[in-house]
Design goal:
eight-stranded mixed sheet, 9 helices, binds zinc ion, single chain, Metallo-beta-lactamase, Chain A, 26% strand, alpha/beta, six-stranded mixed sheet
Length: 289
């Protein structure tokens, strides 16, 4: 049995690698697409942003709306292809570029779900989206039409309200701005909590899944989580060591090369900004010495 399960996972990963596309649309400069990840779980692309959605007999569970136009397109596609109402919309975290446009789903009666801290930030920062109806602090399981999704908060990381979403039947974990696949974390790591982020990613190891679906860039597998944590750890160690040697930020940008990750995407463009982000936090911590 296990062999066949592994085999089907392999077939699945292969079909993902081949990019089996269910729907594609190009309107102006916006690239939108829907791709099947596994079973009833689909990946939605809007340019460089991705979210996922689950189809159940009783309706759809969608995740990040991305923006109002994107959400409207997705809502229409789900209606056309699956003829299902949208019952839940789950936000990954409070950042505007992922969760704007939630009202498009909320207006049709969907329940909006997010971490408790995300609700606070959405209201406080006036994010252009629907305010969550349902919040949680550590963990919540949504059940609809015999399918489940587990919403898990692993601690502070890229923000203080970022959650991961586990789809057990599809063996897929959806993570946004938290783990990327062979790609550096975004630019200057603003809003991030670096040491906490590393421990939060390491907790992913206890979740049982095979496929990693990030909010940006290519799909991956479980090992990519550990690799991403290691990158942030190595970067943190390098910046801390350089700070202890009395190096300036400019000197660090020249001396810290992160050679082991030179094949990762955005290595050249974002490494100096990643160094700056960690440097800011390390300086804050060291001020207490
Ligand atoms: Zn973000």
């Amino acid at each position: 049995m296990q062999f066949f399960q592994r085999l089907s996972t392999l077939v699945l990963i292969l079909s993902l690698a081949l990019g089996v596309s269910v729907a594609q649309a190009q309107s102006g400069d916006t690239k939108r697409a829907i791709t099947q990840i596994s079973g009833d779980l689909y990946r939605f692309q809007n340019n460089f942003h991705y979210s996922v959605f689950l189809i159940t007999p009783e309706g759809a569970i969608v995740t990040d709306p991305i923006n109002a136009e994107a959400a409207t397109w997705l809502k229409d596609e789900i209606k056309k292809r699956f003829n299902k109402p949208i019952r839940y919309v789950v936000y990954s975290h409070d950042h505007r570029d992922h969760i704007a446009g939630g009202e498009v789903f909320a207006e049709t009666g969907a329940t909006v779900v997010a971490h408790e801290n995300a609700k606070r930030a959405i209201i406080g920062e006036g994010r252009p989206t629907a305010v969550p109806d349902l919040t949680f602090t550590d963990r919540m399981t949504l059940e609809l039409g015999g399918k489940t999704v587990e919403l898990i908060y692993l601690g502070k990381s890229h923000s203080d309200n970022l959650i991961v979403m586990n789809f057990p039947e599809e063996r897929t974990l959806f993570t946004v701005d938290f783990i990327s696949v062979k790609r550096l974390p975004f630019k200057g790591l603003s809003d991030a909590y670096i040491p906490e982020w590393i421990s939060a990613i390491r907790k992913v190891d206890a979740i049982d899944f095979d496929i990693l679906a990030p909010g940006h860039g290519p799909m991956g597998k479980k090992q990519d989580a550990a690799d991403h944590a290691q990158y942030i750890q190595d970067l943190y160690d390098a910046v801390l060591a350089a700070a202890r040697e009395g190096k300036s930020l400019d000197e660090m940008k020249t001396s810290i090369k992160m050679e082991a990750y030179k094949d990762w995407s955005q290595h050249e463009a974002w490494l100096p900004l990643n160094i700056e982000g960690v440097y800011r936090q390390v300086s804050l911590h060291r001020r207490g010495n």
